[in-house]
What does this fold into?
Amino acid sequence: MPDQHRLARWLGALLLLGATLALLLGAGVGSTGFESVLNASSDPVAWQIIWDIRLPRTLGAWLAGALLGLAGAVAQGLFRNPLADPFLLGSASGASLGVAVALALFGVSPYATEWLVRLGLTGAAFAGAVGGVLLTLALAKGVHHTLRLLLAGVIVGVVLGAVKDLITIAVPDILQAMQAFMLGSTGFVGWTACGVMAATLLPAMAVAWALSQVLDGLTLGEATAHSLGLPLAPMRAALVAVLALATGSAVAQTGLIAFVGLAAPHLVRSIVKTTHGRLIALSALMGGLLLMVADVLARWLIAPQELPVGVLTAVLGGSYLLWLMHRRSARGGFL
Amino acid sequence: MKALMKKLMVVALVFAVLPAWAIQVRDDRGVTVTLPSPPQRIVSTLPSLTETVCELGACQRLVGVDRYSNFPASVRSLPQVGGGIDPNVEAIVALKPDLVLMAVSSRGVERLESLGLKVVALEPKSAVDVQRVLGVVGQLLEARDAQRVWRVIDAGVHAAAQSLPPKAKSMRVYFEVNQGPYAAGQSSFIGETLARLGVQNIIAAELGPFPKINPEYVVRANPDLIMIGARNADNLAQRPGWAALQAIRDKRICVFSPEESDVLVRPGPRMADAARIMAHCITKQAR
It folds into this structure.
């Protein structure tokens, strides 16, 4: 085990170093190319591109990825299911529904405009994500039964998705704007959005870290976790809250970005076997690095045009998981 | 006293001159945008707005467009700044525009504003919107002939309607927007043009602009003429029940090329061309 601890520390340091390098790289890559860096001292627009566009979006990608990685590690531990995803508890479909409702009201009722402008689509997405999770919890009658919770999450996901489709059919004008939201992108992240995500990441990380022993207990089964004398119910509720808030704030700022939350904990586990406290921290670092690299790639691959980063993570993350599953099943195990 | 008079004079002068310089418009979000002078570097991320700017004779002031803007041909050589749903913030800022024209539904309007750019968001959806947007863009560009341009467009639509043989007026038309199937309802831009031409739309008015219909609806309504884009026009007769449709049996189908579809679906200054394209096909099929 000490070896594994040292490995975990090394991995953390490497991931941070990677993120720093990717941040520097991110400042140099974009549709205007590297010239912006060279001209930054003389040209105010080049300076604005580096300082107000590239840096916040690169940092924002790291923060969103870290939130998703953290949420993924918490979800997989909480449900003792390696396929658990932060979007599992209905947060993704809740967020899309929130955006659809906001857009539909925005188009239809003139009275809605006033508060909607203040709340914004970001607020609607966040409220929707948290609302989706709360609905799942209500349906599952709490967080006690893992299976019931998973099932409720799937049901809420499908039903809220269908309601969103109903709204888009009733108000087809919002189709375009909905599509824009569904394509996850880090291209619109500014310093304010970075601030909001950082303000969620720190407390979420602290709470998840503090409660990680309940996840360690759960890996040995529900009965064992009980016998450890931990107050399971409130701790689980707190972890679900962390899950909802972390996912909600990432989704609200960047839209739907697939697979980062699922792949980050898997990648960490394939490198190092460790306790949940370290796994959560490393997954956050891994998720951050993954999305940051994906964001830089999205800007660079077809420059001066750019890909929506959500499309890229879905393709890359999906293929990686398939490969991982294939490799594991070839060895006789399953994930 | 003299100094005070001087100051007052300056203030009066500023007030006298300011209205002549500052341009103020209210965009479709309800936001009032003030420009210090007519914009010289414009980025447009909506094809119909690109066409509007060019129609008002300011094509040379465009410095960037979205990847779907393809008319007039000169805009194809301009730098592309992404699409309406994924505008490229960095590319737009790098072009140093003094005005960005976007759709209201477009993402990133607030982001671009927070970076200090002037954004006017407009959402043309109907013929009335086309006139209004021409007015707003004309005001921005200080183009005096915006209303004259509108009258020419309106006269063009009217002429297209006049060109139709009387027989065409009784024709019942189904316009399919995509294979959903989504139809063009009476309140859509396409439906408005059909109504101006005087043909009957089989889609009931209360279904709204772009209703997703049941294919059965078309079978029941049994249109005399089907209008459809080339991308969706394959195997119409294979759709359940459609082989018996009057329009299919008589082969009265208007298939529009992608270029024609662009003209038909964009609520912009080419709406007279759209009316002519439809009128041409209806006349041919009405024989």
User: Anything to note?
Assistant: Residues 11-330 of chain A form a domain with the ABC transporter involved in vitamin B12 uptake, BtuC fold (CATH 1.10.3470.10). DSSP finds 14 helices and no strands in chain A.
